[in-house]
């Protein structure tokens, strides 16, 4: 991490999204200081006023890291593993194999040929 480097993230942020917050969160891990510059954007037709966008940015900064539902969408319900998930069963491939072999998944049987 470069502690003496200042990063500037400019934009109109209309509206401020969780994706913008994710970029800022990642930038804080890479740089010593991150400045989020909310521009007035007179040439753009914005949905919210500058004050409303500044309030949205401040309230988004107060949210906990794992408050976004997309961060936990694809996790195994047993182990919490984020890779190799089978959405139909809500578990990862390792647990799918273990549960299917032990007969704990209704409608799923072990195939043998």
Q: Notable features of this structure?
A:
single chain; 113 residues; alpha+beta; Rossmann fold; two-stranded antiparallel ribbon; 3 helices
Can you give a write-up of this model?
It contains 3 helices and 4 strands; from the N terminus they run E-H-E-H-E-E-H. It is an alpha+beta fold. The chain has 2 domains: 68 residues, HUPs (Rossmann fold), CATH 3.40.50; 29 residues, no CATH class. The strands form 2 sheets. It has a two-stranded parallel sheet with strand order 1-2. It has a two-stranded antiparallel ribbon with strand order 3-4. Strand 3 and strand 4 form a beta hairpin. The termini are far apart.
Q: What is the strand arrangement across the widest sheet? A: 1-2
How far is the N terminus from the C terminus?
A: 54 Å
Percent strand equals 15-25%
Here the CATH topology of the largest domain equals Rossmann fold
The parts where pLDDT drops under 50 for at least 5 residues are none
How helical, in percent, are the residues?
Answer: 25-40%
Pattern of helices and strands: EHEHEEH
What's the architecture of the largest domain, going by CATH? Answer: 3-Layer(aba) Sandwich
Tell me the number of structural domains.
2
Largest sheet: 2 strands, parallel
Overall body shape: elongated
